[in-house]
Amino acid sequence: xxxxxxxxxxxxxxxxxxxxxxxxxxxxxxxxxxxxxxxxxxxxxxxxxxxxxxxxxxxxxxxxxxxxxxxxxxxxxxxxxxxxxxxxxxxxxxxxxxxxxxxxxxxxxxxxxxxxxxxxxxxxxxxxxxxxxxxxxxxxxxxxxxxxxxxxxxxxxxxxxxxxxxxxxxxxxxxxxxxxxxxxxxxxxxxxxxxxxxxxxxxxxxxxxxxxxxxxxxxxxxxxxxxxxxxxxxxxxxxxxxxxxxxxxxxxxxxxxxxxxxxxxxxxxxxxxxxxxxxxxxxxxxxxxxxxxxxxxxxxxxxxxxxx
Length: 308
What we know:
By secondary structure, the chain is of the alpha+beta class. It folds into 2 domains: about 5-160, Metal Transport, Frataxin, Chain A, CATH 3.30.920; about 175-300, Trna Endonuclease, Chain: A, domain 1, CATH 3.40.1350.10. It is about 25% helix and about 30% strand. The chain has a 7-stranded antiparallel β-sheet with strand order 1-2-3-4-5-6-7, covered by helices on one side. Strands 9, 12, 13, 14, 16 and 18 form a 6-stranded mixed β-sheet that branches. Strands 8-19 form a two-stranded antiparallel ribbon.
């Protein structure tokens, strides 16, 4: 496996000067991360990109390291990227976002895309005919491939630490009880084990023409984690998932989806459920004002049994 990425970066910068939008020849993985590259769809993008994502992430719904090439400014930004299409439940740690500039702040003017992502490193792209040189944005020094690789290694290592372990929620006497480390894991687990959960006894998943549509149900205000139907009333139930502790902000998010269902699916009796590892006091009080909302906690019980 190739453990250097700088040749890919220079090839990507060269191709960005053309109308070629093909990406099949680029690597699909690097150091355990999926690599996604885009030069545009149908027409060349103003800001082509290279993203590094985990299995749990999507470019349209997640946060991840990403190279963003602002062609008009001849700037390549290695960014703490944040998806624009959908707002993900988690993001970069506060110590990173507090210390870094947003891309809009860096350029000091509104940019066409990705202005809310954060700058990790910025490079001047020096075009010299067929040759492309990357220079340090502050010193103007031409950067070696080792220096470019080092920058990428640092941000990938920071990213990896976000997902290396799930967050333990152990209490005295509860060894083996933990939490999922990504909402996607919790979501997949519930869908795959629906009939064996308390939810399955109360609600049905929605299937249309043989296809399950309950999971990540699409709306124009964002995807609903799980949309189900109450077995007794036939009304819709909006289920919002959080991997660990959540606060009263989640109430507003759930209310938005419930409002969308009420208006677009014509259901005045829609209800909502928040499922998380734990809840703050603020959420406890906020939910009291919404009798059509319910809160549930989950635990993972991990046990080992001998092989017969």
